[in-house]
Design goal:
mainly alpha
Amino acid sequence: MKIKEIRDLSSGELQQKNRELTEELFKLRLRHAARQLDSSAMLGQVRRDIARIKTVLVEKEER
């Protein structure tokens, strides 16, 4: 996800997206441990998306 797309979401939508990505990261880690993951770059991408969402959530709280 791009930061512009994330900033357009409401706080509730951001929290929901954060939960979804956290679950996806868990599933990716399991697949990676079982050596069934084709691209380990997906782990980093999902982690960065989670970090972006958390950053925007903190920014919205400060306003």
